[in-house]
Each structure stands twice: as structure tokens, then as C-alpha cells.
Design a protein that fits this description.
The protein is of the alpha/beta class. Helix content is 41%, strand content 21%. Strand 4, helix 5 and strand 5 form a beta-alpha-beta unit. Helix 2 packs antiparallel against helix 3 and helix 3 crosses helix 11. The C terminus is likely disordered.
Length: 386
Amino acid sequence: MNTTIAEVVAYPLNIPVEFSLAGATAKTGLSCVVVQVTTADGIVGHGFTAITEEEIVAEAINSVVAPNVIGLNALDRERISEELYWLLTPRGQTGYASHAVSCIDLALWDILGKVTQQPCWQLLGGARREVPLYVTFGFGAFDRDQLGDVARHLRADGISRFKMVVGHHGLHKRIRGADLRSILEEDIQRVRVAREAIGDDSDLFIDANCSLDPSSARWLAERLAEYNITFFEEPVRDNDPAQMAELRRATGVRVAAGQNEGQLWRFQSLLDAGAVDVIQPNVVICGGLTAGSKVAALAEARNVTLANGGAFPYHNMHLHAGFAHGGLVEWHLVAVEMSKPIFKGLPEAKGQTLPLPDKPGLGFELDLDAVKELAKRPLSAGTGKA
């Protein structure tokens, strides 16, 4: 069998998303890049990345990555990962390059699974056949009443693990005249509404998306203590390890981070600083399953909880099912809807669990016709955030 890489094509997409739940409607658009890697024998693997400037990443793959990986063996994932490190990030830079690497790496794992006729989660170790989910529902587009209605609806459906956003890009809005304290005071009321809706026996996670300064994050954490927050995700700008370690020490809140990190040393820095209770590599961003598996090993060696942050459960489920140290996978309602137009054969959640597919590779396929059609649309300015 000839598994030499013969073709690499990346498609930049911005997918409009609209969904309604309990009378509340969310409308947004999420950017992503999908890549198709084809071997000399015609085996096709697909990769994916998101939460980025899609045109930049797709151009990097098509113009820089493709000429340097065509002719290599698609099964040599570690070699290709190292080659791409020196090609794209020779001094340990983070940023767009890790998105490109993730796209390629996931496609190579998909090819490996198809060559061996095994699903990726089993190739990684096969620790479990289903993964536990938490549901991200609390979007800024919902007002307080809608937030409560959606939470009650999900709780009635048996969901007991919930995540909502706070901070609402506060530092960015501040330079445009917004009052950060007012944003945080509204967050307190929104968290109160959510906690009352889901009851005391449910987990409630909050996520600031790196949008707060340390003092504001501490101020908010102290005032939310009565609502029993399970973890505070990405509380401060830049995922500053020292500041997050201090936040843990000063408030006792559990801290989670890592969903947008793109180098192994960044995860090591978070772990060595004692900055996180929960480390969150996202395989569509951190460098794929190859890099994600190394982060999982770092976390297990330090007895730090592993979880998925940053959405996209269909790719991240493989990491958490493959390793014994695997943990919660994020069922991000917007990201789930975003995936449906471009993938075929996606597994369906059963309550708070997601069964892993037995099909080879990633276990679902790219709808290439749909991808090409979406790629024809003008891309909107800016980046959709999951």
C-alpha cells in the first residue's frame, strides 16, 4: 500500500449558525478550516481547525505546508509533526501555525485509522467507549430570562453539567468605552439566574475567554463563591500562569485553561506554575491528536484533571476516550450545530454521554460538496468565537 501524501487541499469557511432552544434563539457565524489529505493510493483523511482567521490558516496550509509534506509518508505522524514545527514555529511561537498543524495532524490520524481499519480513539489506547459531556449553553446573546429558560429546559432533559460565559470580552470592550465593572455586575446576576435554574445539585462552569485582568477576575470569583462554581475557565488575559496560580491561592476557585494553547511548553508552564486544576488541550488547535496525547501524558504525570475546552467534541472525543486520564468533553451547542452542515455520520449524544464510533479513523466523513459550496461564499469580517 502506498501511503505517500499526494495532495493537500485546505478550505476556509465561515459557517452561519442559528439554533433555538426553549424559545431563545442564537445567531452567529463560526470560522473554521477543513483540509483533505489524499495518499497515492487514494486514501483520504480530513482535518479541521477553528476559532481562528480561516483565510490565513488555509493559505498557510495550501502555500507553505502542502509543498513540504507532499511526498512524505502519511503514517509518519511524529516526523511530520516535527517537520512542521521547524517549518512554522522554529522558535516556539504560538498562533496561527498551531491551527495549521492541527488540521494536518487530524487528517493523518484519520488516514492511519483507515489504513489499519481502527477508530482513532482505539489507536490512542481505547480506555472507554463513551465520554462524559458538559453542555455550554450560556451565551452572551441570551438575556437573563432566556438564560434561565434554556437552563431549565436542559435540566429537565437530564443535563447536570453546564457552562456559561462571563466577562464578555470585557478588556476589549473597555477600550471602546464600556464599563468593565458593569459587565461583571451583570455577570453576577446572570450566574445567579443560571444557578437557580439548574439547582444546587448541578455543576456550573464559567468561562471568561481570557477577557479579564487579574484583579477583575478575582473580584468576580469572590462574589460568585456563593454559587458554587465548579471551575473558572480562562479567567485572565494571556492565560498568565503566575496570575492564575495567585487566583487559585487567593480565592480557592478551581481554574481551567489551555483550549487555545499551541505549543507543548505552554501547557508545561501552566502545569509547573500550579496555575490550573483542569488542563484543556483542544486537538483542533494544540497540534492535533499527536500533541494532545503528549499534553494528556503531562497532565497524568502531575495528577491534574484533563478536559476538553474550546468545543468541537467530535474531534476531541477521541483523545478522551483513548486515554485513561481522559475527562469531560464540551458539548458546545453552537459548535455542534456548526459541524452538522460539513460532516456526515456524526455520532449522537445520549443524555450526558457521547458514544464513540466504531468506524475507522475519525469515524465520520467530510461532506466535500457542502464544504466547496460554503467555501464559495464571501467570508465575513472578523472571527467567530466558540
